[in-house]
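The freezer alarm interrupted the setup, so I double-checked each line after restarting. Inputs confirmed:
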Amino acid sequence: MISPELKKVILKQLNLDDFDFNDNTIAPDVPGWDSLNHINIILAVEENFKVKFKSMELLRLKKVNDLQELLDSKLGK
Amino acid sequence: MTQFNFNIDEAPTLWKRWKLNSERYPNKDAIVHWMAGEEPYRWTYKNLVGKAEKYSAKLKEIGVKPGDICANIIRHNPEFYPIYFGISRIGAIPAVLAFPNPRLHPDKFRQGIEGMSQRSGLDYILTERELEPLIRPLIEKPGSTIKAVYFPLEWDLSSDIDPEINDEIEKNASSIKNTDPGLLQHSSGTTGLQKPVVLSHRAIMNHVYQLGKAMKLNDKDKVVSWLPLYHDLGLIGSYHIPLACGNTLIQIDPFQWVLAPVLLLDVITKEKATVSFTPNFAYNIMAEKIDEEELAGIDLSSMRTIINAAEPIRHDSHEKFANKFKKYGFNPLALTVLYGMAETTLGVTLTEPGKPITELSVDRNELSKGVVKFPDDNSVVRICVSSGKLVEGGEARIVDENRNDIPDGLVGEVAVKSISMFDGYRNYPEKTAEVFVDGWFYSGDYGFRYKDEFFIIGRKKDIIIVAGKNIYPEDIEDALNQAEGIIPGRVIAFGEEDAEMGTEFVSVVAETKAETEEDKNKVRMSILKAGMNIDVIIHKVYLVPSRWLIKSSAGKPSRKANKERLTTETDTQVWSR
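Predicted 3D structure, all chains:
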């Protein structure tokens, strides 16, 4: 499940009030999350959590939950 | 290094040309199929043509005949290329269609294929097993032109072809005439509005010659592309031109590139690529959205020409790109611009590779009135980027609304004539007659000519171009008419400039009876979701009360007038988010 902090960053970037993320949510399920916005979401997550993602890591992401797991690994959680 | 040397007559059809290349350059890389993090798959000309022969035998066996249209809906896969070649070898007509995004509603995908089938007369669909449940019902539908769906990635082609059958296919392949259709591409649109453009072998070969020469293509050039092959810039520029000329194409997965734009730069560095085509937005993304750490080791010094096309060219995008990548060896003179369209195979004009691009500062207000005037102290300036001079074999005129020539210095519609012109929209004579008169194609693009160079500044039609992809507002408006909370028929879609990304974004204005903030947000969500169903992301929603929208003389809401009103006036009745 994605954390409230990550959810907040994503919603802000997509200009949404809320969205019901679950373990299987993929980017195309979420209003506004297209390839152009994807780049901005990743940059916003990097900035907010002070982390850096590598392109190869991003290419492996299939679901929104994978982004949470990648973020957790960067944050040492 | 050998300069451009392409003789159409020695191999005037696609298959003959590829076959000739396989004899001339058997061990040269034809296609380097790139997958991030894996060893690329390298097709030599000999292996590619050999595998294509096997596919052609299989296609013949299952009943595909010369003239049949075979739609390919296959994701980035090394087998795609020999399948495409194999279709051409038996005289059938390949058409590349986009693999559906998961966002696209299955009904909308089916409607799109159905519409295409009715118009283009699709005969066979070659795709992946995953799409079978979506496509199978279309074949069973009464009146469908689609005869069958096949899954060529599952075919076992390990055994040798019967030499007799192979000889027969080769004999038939040599009888294909250069006036026969060579491929079908869809010019634009998302659902019911695609226009099927049929190109003869002659048109394609003429264009390979014309554009290859204008690009100064040489035998050492390597073209790198992340573009999808259902897009004319990808299919003609990046795929057909290098493969006809015996050059190497390095093809990146479009889905991987959008997730990791550094891939293009990485491939240029590793393969020493020299040529690339890419739409304007990609310059912004690569200049501004890639972390400096990711650029360690990047070397762009091999790049001879990077060709910007498929959407309006922005001065800022070029400047950002050149400034960012100079220190990575990029030569700013490699920036090149092409203007073209599927109907002329691809290119009409091109700036000269290796030379600076002409940019004109003009008075923005005068330009919006159709007059090219150099700015004075009071002017708001717009920098117009040249799309270059005519590519050999083409002609262009700037015309007024009655299609009469207008002098240089005035803005009008661009009309073009070319020896690589299409043969008309397939099964669409009324549309062909509308835009194609006495050999002239009326492009619907607005521009002007200055000292033999063409500057494209806008569009007569209301097409929205997002990241090089054409979107018809009609498609969005149709989809939104069923969205909850909006007054049916009282909705308009239009494009707004996205300066940050170097492209446009989609905006929608709709009349609604919703009054509270909560209800308006609900209406907005229903609009966003309706857009998602046709795989269109709506960036901004304006909601207005009943009877707010300005109507055109035909009684329908006017896109132009309402866009202007929304973007230039402040009105407290307008809610936006």
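Quick read of the result. The first strand of chain B starts at residue 29 and ends at 34.
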